[in-house]
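Course assignment 3, question 2. Fill in each field.
Student: A.L.
Task: Predict the tertiary structure for the chain below.
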Amino acid sequence: MPRTYDAIVIGGGVIGSSIAFHLARAGAGRVALLERDAICAGNTRRSGAIVRMHYSNDPEARLALASLPYFQHWDEKVGGDCGFTPTGFTILVGPENLDRLHRNVSRLQALGVDTRVLGPDDLREVVPALQTDGVAAAAYEPTSGYADAVKTTQAFAAAARRLGVEVLEGTSVIGIAVSGKRVTGVLTASERLDAPVVVCAANTWAPALLRTAGVALPVTPRRAQVAYFERPATYSGPHPVILDTTTALYTRAHGLDQILGGAADESGASPVNPDDNDPNADQGFPEAVMRRMGRRLPTLARMPLARAEAGLYDMSPDTRAILDATPEVAGLYVAAGFSGTGFKKAPAVGLGMAELVMQGRATSVDLLPFRIGRFADDAAIHGADEYALPQSWGHSF
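Answer field:
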């Protein structure tokens, strides 16, 4: 006889682990979290783990804002340690995006985000090492920062275990079982597991899994690279999260002895099959990041490379998440398509998805804009003041 659960969550990254935790906390009954490798062994492990509120659209900003208290009070809300470090966050824009920045900051302030506009002189007070040529202004969030992707995910999974969730690592799901128009469980490489509720949070593997249930998910993989450098002993100033739209650079501290850097337009060739992704960054990627770092932070122009790696973003057509019950199959839910910005929203996504499963709709956060049918309804999520960026970035802010 197959093992039976009240709910099964597929995917042991930060999204799936958060959903499993919140389902258990909501009293969902017997819950299983399935991960084909180990908890946080996939794309979450390679996340920049940035925590910020700055978006040009309200739905994403609200999810990020609802997640911030979790990071700030992790031990109280989840337990354990997520490694949150409130370094502050800045997004730098050139003159072409200045008006958009002011409008976005005003809108975010109205939502309750702690943010303000800084001119170049004020910006240098926040980041003394910053070279501001070409920068017209920045949005600054003093309470934002970054967390530890592995600690965060493992803390969610550990808290889920304490609430009775069965965490099944090394369990590959090869299909979703359906009878009529209702989900009945999943098929793993070795057995069948029954459940009337299945939540697919499998990142770039979600489309293939959902196809086994007759559900089409418009998500494709996009390669994303990041490099870690040894922090110079002479660089002792503050290093907040910096997202520079003028050079496509993003960077943050990584503990006390490293600096993380990325180039948003240097993705490399994306595989059709996520299993074919090379986890090593392209050979020239660290140097490309270093050149941009040197332009914006000259004291960091030459740093020894610690490591460089590449994960995958699960890209949706509008680069926003898909969080919904599937209309074709009752009891089957999806949380995917985050397009590289899921980590910071994971707490609120887990809360909202658990409410959707248990109550039929999310009440603590608004998931309706993220419905799977929005593309057919011509209701894709776009901000009124999205920044003018090269198409090569592959993402809107």
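Instructor remarks: Residues 3-46+150-219+318-393 form a domain with the FAD/NAD(P)-binding domain fold (CATH 3.50.50.60). The chain has a mean pLDDT of 96.
Grade: pending
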